[in-house]
Design goal:
This protein is of the alpha+beta class and 655 residues long. Helices cover 33% and strands 20% of the residues. The longest helix has 19 residues.
Length: 655
């Protein structure tokens, strides 16, 4: 690694640290570091790479992180997958990284927390051995991995067809096919601080191996791998959020609690006023089928969890949402017991007062039956209750209002209110809302969400057969309405079959989606095209969706075409070895073993037939999605087309 080579070069240049056979004496180096040795510090500061890794600037003063330096010195990085200070257990630790059971200041740690995991799965049945790049030991690999990428194969979809050879426009909706970690890092340059809501329905982690585990990465550190996978992506996503933005993540029982501790820690590090806002329990299935087979062993699980985080509580507000209710829970007859007969007059002195039950009795109705329910709905602006309001009470007393007459009052904030008997009047009509064309009693939503349409979700794609486990459009509608306004931008980088994007389009929000699975064109894009054309499923009817809009589809341009061509044309084993060396030297090959391991197993490789050698190298290339960096767009070796250059430069705002 370049970083470690630089460190060794600096240390070897100091005779004090070199022993027999030109070996570095680590104990002498660590002793010098702990003593803040002037010569050592100067040598580190004179190397830009090492200065960035080991020093923090405080008021133009460089502060040496000796703990990080000593840890790297003693890390024995020559061992595969050893780039982590969190080696053994998952749990809570104190500031000295000692595991503890309970303490006020704690942090969740796990193996590879301090690493970057690419996560290049492209097929649902594909498993892959992952490389964990430590951010300190391998900054050059991480920087190259996360550099902005070239975008290719761009098309703009509208209800009238497909436009090709396009440039990106500021108000375009965007779909990116490719690794979502690298897609996110590519978005930073353009969209930093501009996303109002990020909704994530990530691959779920399952502790119970009998469950259908949709997260099929590294099996040896399944939870650790999953946490690293999530942390890497949310770390970047945080910088994409607006100051008044929200992060909303939906999870099952197994991963949500580790995830929450991790998110609490991440937001604490990144923001002073932001952090956890709500934990929602949402009903996602019914009590039927296999769930009922073992009710004597385990309570059936029908809920999932939604975690909501805000970036800055001083700047963010959620929208007040209501949901249908019955009359007694939304407009309780124990509270809304009074009735005013307005007699067709706006003059409140002509109004007559009675109770709800007496009014119903006078017209031959009984409280609680269907006819009385209909009457109360139609006359909800006459049904009222009183509520204590010290401000209005003071206004009433100061102005000597007649307490037996409704008096109209304008508050200091400009609101029109009624005062009766020195109390605020609240009409039942304020509790009514329109739902799907019907006026119904309503109540504010809480942190328990029920009553979403869960049947026939596979048909919400308007002609696209969607997989089980997708989220209902009505659920995404609530989340987007709760956290955004029209024309705000919504991001989902686990796009799946594009439910988030479909709902955002129908609600007049801008959207960005990233998906690395190969089904994106045959399912996700096709579904969105149906939405553009006005498909009438999901929430379409309730929001009167008529179609329209557009979105741009593009791909992270893969950087393996030239190597594949060379590999297919290789005539002997030596030619294949040259290709492997070229891939390693140029950072294009990310094997599941270190280059030193390849050399150690060279004899076994030589024994393979030419075809098997080609297949082995081809497998490494195909399983690791490698992309062209923006900085290499004009490099002839990458053969970037003119159309891809034009689109990429228009996206990044480059001339």
């Amino acid at each position: 690694m370049k970083f470690l080579d630089e460190l060794k070069k600096v240390l070897v240049s100091d005779d004090r640290f070199v022993g027999e056979a030109e070996q570095i004496i680590k104990t002498k180096v660590s002793d010098a570091a702990r003593a803040n040795d002037e010569k050592l510090l100067k040598a580190l500061l004179n190397n830009d790479l090492l200065k960035e890794a080991f020093f923090t600037t405080v008021d133009d003063i460089y502060v040496f992180d000796k703990n990080k330096f000593v840890w790297i010195l003693e890390s024995k990085e020559f061992l595969p997958d050893s780039f982590t200070m969190y080696k053994n257990k998952i749990g809570l630790v104190d500031y000295n990284n000692n595991l503890i059971s309970q303490k006020e200041a704690v942090s969740l740690v796990w193996p590879y927390k301090d690493c970057v995991l690419e996560g290049g799965q492209t097929k649902e049945d594909q498993k892959r051995d992952e490389i964990f790049y430590n951010e300190t030991l391998a900054p050059d690999q991480v920087n190259r991995l996360l550099a902005p990428k070239v975008l290719g194969n761009a098309k703009r979809y509208t209800k009238d067809g497909i436009e090709e050879n396009i440039e990106f426009k500021e108000d375009d909706n965007l779909i990116i096919k490719g690794n979502n970690l690298l897609g996110l890092s590519s978005l930073l340059e353009k969209y930093r601080g501009s996303i109002k809501c990020i909704y994530l329905d990530p691959p779920y982690f399952f502790e119970d191996t009998t469950d259908n585990d949709s997260f099929e990465y590294n099996s040896n550190f399944k939870l650790s791998t999953w946490l690293t996978f999530m942390k890497n992506r949310i770390d970047i996503a945080f910088d994409l959020m607006r100051d008044d933005g929200f992060l909303v993540i939906q999870m099952n029982d197994y991963g949500v609690f580790h995830l929450k501790v991790m998110l609490d820690d991440l937001f604490k590090q990144k923001t002073k006023n932001g952090g956890f806002l709500n934990h929602i329990s949402v009903k996602m299935s019914d009590l039927s089928g296999p769930k009922m087979a073992h009710v004597n062993k385990k309570i059936p699980k029908i809920k999932e969890h939604i975690l909501i985080y805000q970036k800055d509580s001083t700047k963010s507000t959620i929208n007040v949402l209501r949901e249908p209710s019955d009359w007694d829970s939304a407009i309780d007859d124990k509270r809304y017991t009074q009735y005013v007969e307005k007699n067709g007059s706006d003059d409140t002195r002509n109004w007559e007062y009675t109770t709800v039950r007496k009014k119903l009795s006078d017209i031959g109705l009984t409280y609680g039956d269907a006819e009385s329910y209909k009457f109360l709905l139609e006359n909800a602006d006459c049904v009222f209750r009183s509520a204590a309001n010290n401000s209005l009470k003071k206004i009433s007393i100061d102005n000597n209002f007649d307490t037996n007459v409704f008096t109209r009052v304008k508050t200091e904030t400009g609101l029109d209110k009624f005062v009766y008997k020195n109390e605020e009047v609240i009409f039942a009509s304020s509790k009514l809302e329109e739902f799907n064309g019907k006026i119904l009693p309503s109540e504010s939503i809480s942190d328990i969400w029920l009553n979403f349409a869960l049947n026939d979700l596979s048909n919400e794609g308007g002609g696209v057969n969607l997989k089980n486990g997708k989220k209902p459009e009505s659920l995404l509608e609530r989340i987007i309405l709760l956290t955004t306004q029209p024309n705000d931008r919504v991001l989902d980088f686990f796009m799946g079959t594009a439910t988030t994007q479909a709902v955002a389009l129908k609600l007049n929000r801008k959207f960005i989606g990233i998906e690395q699975m190969n089904y994106i064109t045959e399912k996700s894009v096709k579904r969105l095209v149906n939405v553009l054309k006005g498909e009438d499923r999901g929430i379409s009817k309730s929001v009167n969706w008529q179609g329209g809009g557009s979105f741009v589809y593009c791909e992270l341009l893969e950087d393996n075409e030239n190597l594949v061509d060379e590999l297919e044309g290789a005539m002997n084993s030596d030619a294949i070895k040259e290709i492997i060396n070229k891939a390693i030297d140029n950072g294009k090959l990310i094997p599941s073993v270190l280059p030193s391991d390849l050399k150690e197993n060279q004899d076994d490789f030589d024994k393979l037939s030419l075809e098997k050698q080609k297949n082995l190298v081809m497998e490494l290339l195909n399983k690791n999605q490698l992309y062209v960096n923006l900085s290499d767009i004009d490099d002839e070796d990458y053969k970037v087309s003119e159309a891809d250059k034009v689109f990429t430069r228009s996206f990044y705002g480059k001339e």
